[in-house]
Amino acid sequence: MLILSLDTSTTVCSVALHRDGSVLACYELFTEKSSSGMLTTLIQNAVQHSGYQLSDLDAIAVDKGPGSYTGLRIGVSTAKGLCFALDKPLLAINTLEAMTRQLSGFYPPSYALCPMLDARRMEVYCAIYDAEGRERMPTSAQIIDDQSFAELLMQQPVVFFGNGAAKCRAVLGHQPNAVFPDPLIHPSAKTVGQLAAVAYRENRFEDVAGFEPYYLKDFVGTKPKKLVV
């Protein structure tokens, strides 16, 4: 089972190659602006440097969202293009679930894990998982205020992480049960590939032609400024 995984949900562009769930290669670019333009190069490096060709792949996996509208479009379009060209199946993994896998098993069972991605202003995309990575609250868009997660924080420690956690820290950082780990946890194709291996074994393939990213909310573009003459 050889799976190529892509993650372009944020400005971090990530590509990984897994054999039977074990990582063979992982390439990541961390830039201020989207590095998705390097996606093709990273794919070639991951596959060729591992001693394989694209034709050797058994499936293509991609993070389906939530995340950056533009980033998700690029990642999904690239994954679908590879699937059509190589006649390979498509696997899609929730970005927040893949982020949570990076911390799964690092905290005691009494803790909850809350991955967060920035969604403009005081809004975040988030979900709640238990310490082993099982979903407790589905993915949603939340506006953060001083009452956010109040009931959950009264019951147990909650680990907030991801690039949306900073705005939450400013509001909820005083709560004794609110935990904000360092360093920053980014989405990664490495854990997308680990979850994709499970999905492959369970035959959870997507319809390549009809698949669309999980945007969670409509794209909001910026209005062009009036030209002052």
Give a short summary of the structure:
The chain has 229 residues and is α/β, with parallel strands linked by helices. It has six helices and ten strands, in the order E-E-E-H-E-H-E-H-E-E-E-H-E-H-E-H. The relative contact order is 0.20.
CATH architecture of the largest domain: 2-Layer Sandwich
Helical content, roughly?
25-40%
The separation of the N and C termini measures 61 Å
User: Which residue ranges are poorly predicted, with pLDDT under 50 across at least 5 consecutive positions?
Assistant: 219-229
Strand content: 25-35%
Count every helix, treating DSSP H or I runs of 4 or more residues as helices: 6
- Helix vs. strand class: alpha/beta
List the helices and strands and how they pair.
Blueprint lengths: L1 E6 L5 E7 L2 E8 L9 H10 L10 E7 L3 H18 L3 E5 H7 L10 E7 L4 E8 L4 E9 L6 H6 L2 E4 L3 H8 L5 E2 L9 H13 L28
Parallel strand pairs: 1-4, 4-5, 6-9, 9-10
Antiparallel strand pairs: 1-2, 2-3, 6-7, 7-8
Helix pairs in contact: 3-6
